Every structure is written in C-alpha cells, then in structure tokens.
Amino acid sequence: ENGDNPEEGEGEDPQAVIYGTNINVETVMNVFREFLNNFKIEGQDVPRYIVALHNIHETGIMDIEIDCHHLETYSDATLSLYTQLVRYPQEIIPVLDLVVHEEFIRLHNDGFLEEAGKRIQVRAFNLHKVSRMRELDPEDLDQMVCLRGMIIRASSVIPDIKQALFRCTLCNHEQTVVIDRGVIAEPKKCDLCNQVRCMQLIHNMSLFNDKQMIKLQEAPENIPEGETPHTLSVYAYDALVDVAKPGDR
Predict the structure, then answer these.
(1) Pairwise CA distance, residues 244 & 230, whole Å
(2) Which domains are delineated in the chain?
(3) Could you tell me if 68 and 124 are in contact, meaning their C-beta atoms sit under 8 angstroms apart?
(4) Distance CA 135, CA 117 (A)
(5) C-alpha span between 49 and 53 (Å, rounded)
(6) pLDDT tens profile 47-105
(7) pTM for the whole thing?
(8) What is the pLDDT of residues 206-242, one digit of tens each?
(9) Which residues have CB under 8 Å from 213's CB, separation 6+?
C-alpha cells in the first residue's frame, strides 16, 4: 500500500487509490472476498459468512453483521482492512457492500435481490478499541468509533430523503437526484428546455429512508465523581430504527 500520499516508484505503475486515503479498491475487494468465502468458526465446516448469506436468502433480512474481531485476527491482509475500515468507514463500507452483493448473486442468482428491491448492507461491530464518550475529539471525525453508554431518549421516526424528484415548472420534465452525504444537488437548469431556475422539488414523488435520533449518555462507571454525565446524539437508519429503546445499554 502506498499510504495517504502514494508516489510512483521508478519503473513501476502507480497504484490507484481513493484520493486522500491508502485504499486500493481492487485490493480491498479481493481481501474481503477471500475472507467471506473462507473464514470459519472452530468446529464449523461451512464458512461463517457464507452461512449468513444463505440466511439472508431464507429470512429476507438484508443485513450481514461482520464481527471486526474476525477481520482483525484472520490474516495480515484483513488486519490492514480492519485498520482502513476504522479510519475510512465512508469509503470502505460501500466497497464491502458491493462484494457482499456480488457474492450473494453468485450463490443465489434467482432474482431475489431484484424482487426485494433492496441491497444487502454490511454492519460492522465489535471494534477492538472502546472509546470513552468524554475522550472523543476532532481526530475521531469521519472515523468509526465504539462507545458504551445508556440510551436515555429515542425520537419518533423521521423521514430522511434519499432520492429527490425535481419537475420543471415550464415543460414538466422530471429529473431525479440521489442524495450524497445529506446534500441535495438541485439541478440548475432543465435538461429538456434548458431554462434555468425552473426546477421544483416534488416531495410526494421523492424516496425517503427511516431515520431516528437517539440520545446516548455515558456509562455510569465512566463518569468521574462529581461530574455531569456527557451525552451524545446519534442517528439510526432503516432496519436499526426502533431497535434500541430508552434504558438499553
């Protein structure tokens, strides 16, 4: 791997990585694919995550839970992948989703995913490091962290737009825009009539996800004597909505 700022070696082709990271997509896909197909729990004959993919086909629950301890201890290559997952989750998880999608189709090429209308999502858990809530700082931004605490409040379900539909007020031409990290890139002009500032958002034709705000309070054993407990707001999406209840740890 070339690090955050890869440089070309003399006489060698440069290794393509995602800008600002040390992630080579092809390497990540190959390492994770080998892990999915070969990681076994002691005493089991069938790879654990192949069993999980078969279970998705049987139950229709479109999530696969990846134990990060398995990634960390399986091989040197997956240890490197684990480190990248913690440092760059927004870049790594979509790649893992793609590998899982491809492997599921290889096992069950019967149109199941098309009928479900959803993609399988990777949910990583069991990080090696458990952080204290009051120790979080700017270095943790955009990274994956593991916290322990108690849920003190959960909001009702909030609609969260994922695909917006815009309609031209002059010619009624429609355009869809996929939301990128919470930002709607509103079309500046109509693709059909080329008029500017004529696109109107049509809410009831747009697609929404479920979202829920959860208030997390640090665990009592982590609160210094005489100090006020720290709290943190986190958001749960889709299948994780209404899973956690106030009072849960």
Answers:
(1) 19
(2) 17-131 (3.30.1640.10), 148-240 (2.20.28.10)
(3) yes
(4) 41
(5) 6
(6) 999 999 999 999 988 899 999 999 999 999 999 999 999 999 999 999 999 999 999 99
(7) 0.78
(8) 999 899 999 999 988 888 888 899 999 999 988 899 9
(9) 154, 155, 158, 233, 234, 235
